[in-house]
Amino acid sequence: MAPVSEIFDEKLWRSVAGFDDLTDITYHHDVTGTIARIAFDRPEVRNAFRPHTVDELYQTLDDVRQNPRIGVVLLTGNGPSEKDGGWAFCSGGDQRIRGRAGYEYEGQEGATNPTAAAGLSEAEAEAEAAAAAGKRRAAAGRLHILEVQRLIRFMPKVVIAVVPGWAAGGGHSLHVVCDLTIASTEHARFKQTDVDVGSFDAGYGSAYFARQVGQKFAREVFFLAREYDAQRALDAGAINASVPHAELEATAYDWATTIMTKSPTAIRMVKFALNAVDDGLVGQQVFAGEATRLAYGTDEAVEGRDSFLQKREPDWSPFPWQY
């Protein structure tokens, strides 16, 4: 296995089949197949994301979401930078490719799928390429990192932000939306750069952050755009733990293995219940869907379905009116 990150333990992780062509993200499952590690892999630019990065991030997170064996995701950033030795979780959107309508694919070409045209005629391949190009042109005019935020928020798994260095701008927002955050005592630095670059996260990155740390500190972070370290973040309630850098990934993995000893159904329902406090009707809808899924698994629900299919009156007598 090629080197991934200086604090990456290659004995714990395995590459994931079908994801060999990733360029901006690394994706691994642990040796038990129950914990995933997804990492930004652009340390030379402080793990800033471009549209292609976001495409890969969404793809890997969605693969985790659909995997019934995985219960925890460690979201982190590889490093350090060979250029200056700096560490980063994610420094947000790459400002070099920010256009008037959003972050643009380089040359408006976007990510290509080398297998997309396999087995197609030349005309079919050209049509496929034209359709893909049209989608990319539309995608360049939107901030699809917000779709990643929603995926993290509504994924029925625990997502732990593992912050080895800078979490700035959109990277700051990503750590905010994760369920838990563990940061490097020595290298983690937090900064919300929106007001410095004429941008703003008016959703989870700001409003939910204020819920976590209180209005005064949130306004200080956004209005002054000053960096703060792991200790200040811990004191404010913005992160869950600050640990020595060398122990960062091991600590995160230990937390993940502990979570994997818990009830999967209880974890997902508690996550969605906690989300519902802040997510309004959308959060209530997600919670309601999960409650319905639970109900479908009961003997009472099975009796209701079977009686309908068998065209008979349901027998509710075995089911008490609980109090």
From TrEMBL:
Enzyme class: lyase
UniProt-listed GO biological process terms: menaquinone biosynthetic process
Keyword set, alphabetical order: Lyase, Menaquinone biosynthesis
Cited SUPFAM superfamilies: ClpP/crotonase
Listed GO MF terms: 1,4-dihydroxy-2-naphthoyl-CoA synthase activity
Ligand binding (substrate): 46, 91-95, 103, 166-170, 193, 199, 296, 311
Enzyme Commission number(s) from the entry: 4.1.3.36
Site label Important for catalysis, positions: Y103, D194, Y296
Pathway: Quinol/quinone metabolism; menaquinone biosynthesis; Quinol/quinone metabolism; 1,4-dihydroxy-2-naphthoate biosynthesis; 1,4-dihydroxy-2-naphthoate from chorismate: step 6/7
Keyword Lyase among UniProt keywords: yes
Keyword RNA-binding annotated: no
Reactions catalysed according to its record: 2-succinylbenzoyl-CoA + H(+) = 1,4-dihydroxy-2-naphthoyl-CoA + H2O
Family: Belongs to the enoyl-CoA hydratase/isomerase family. MenB subfamily.
Function field: Converts o-succinylbenzoyl-CoA (OSB-CoA) to 1,4-dihydroxy-2-naphthoyl-CoA (DHNA-CoA).
Record's protein name: 1,4-dihydroxy-2-naphthoyl-CoA synthase
